[in-house]
Amino acid sequence: MSKSPVFLTGCAGFIGMHTTKRLLDQGETVIGVDNINPYYSVDLKRDRLKQLEHPNFHFHEVDISDRQAMEKIWTTYEPKRAINLAAQAGVRYSIENPFAYISSNITGFLVMLELCRHQKDFANLVYASTSSIYGSSTNMPFVEDQMTAVPISLYAATKSGNELMAQSYNYLYGMPATGLRFFTVYGPWGRPDMAAFKFTKAILAGEPLDLYNAGKMKRDFTYVEDIVSGVVAAVNRKPTNKIGERHPIYNLGNNRCEDLPRIITLIEETLGKKALINNMPMQLGDVKETYANIDKAKAELGYSPQTTIDTGVPNFVRWYMDYHK
């Protein structure tokens, strides 16, 4: 009997592209969904899709909040596993465009939950959560069972809502789901609104880069290929049959708390060019520090990040220079 395909939303996104590619390399069939929205460069998203040209990849340009369109695709393939990476991302953008987050992150996620719960013999819905749901907590490193009911951005609130929605479907219907809290993902094909991308672009252009809170910020920077290893391990995990235990949540980070200026230094060294700094105040909705405890993911998923920023950041910069010629 052939293996059921993996239904993956957000396949033209940063993590979505890398995850799809890994699954295809492992012999999986992937049903990819993405609406190619213009939050950032549509050309970048189309170029990512070009990396996924494969006989086992079936792409559908659809918005996940479009219930009828999603049902039509789903019933065509009847997948038993799903990975929901489609979301309106970004803490700062959620302050400017809040309705985009409700449509994609809440309505779209509800559509996915409904599709999964009605699928016979459904095995697992893996979905992206975020380190942002820990809010401004200073209790570090963050552990999965600490309080997260204090989001300080709408983006974080929608992701916290996803975890609560999945938990309710787990309780009501016994629907297996796995939540993954990503910590500052970076790497080749990354998003233009993320620090490594913005810093590299500014330094190459000889323009000042905006450094918030005078650079007094720390992040658990996690290389994209390490994140993908966690996602793939999660979707292949066999959930327990006990109601209430079918919805584990894992931190996926690098288990290192890095100073933001260190990222700038690594970019400067790779480019052989110094940065011009424009010190800015702390941004509304942002946090000063993130740091993941990954013991649970190590024990239950075999998650073991391999790439430090000393390797990962130069990898990103080289990709950036090659991509932009």
TrEMBL record:
Residues covered by the NAD(P)-binding domain: 8-313
Assigned keywords, A-Z: NAD
Gene3D superfamilies reported in the protein's UniProt record: NAD(P)-binding Rossmann-like Domain, UDP-galactose 4-epimerase, domain 1
Organism, scientific name: Candidatus Odyssella acanthamoebae
Protein name per UniProt: NAD(P)-binding domain-containing protein
Pfam families, per database record: GDP_Man_Dehyd
Segments passing through the bilayer: none
InterPro entries to which the protein is assigned, alphabetical: NAD(P)-bd_dom, NAD(P)-bd_dom_sf
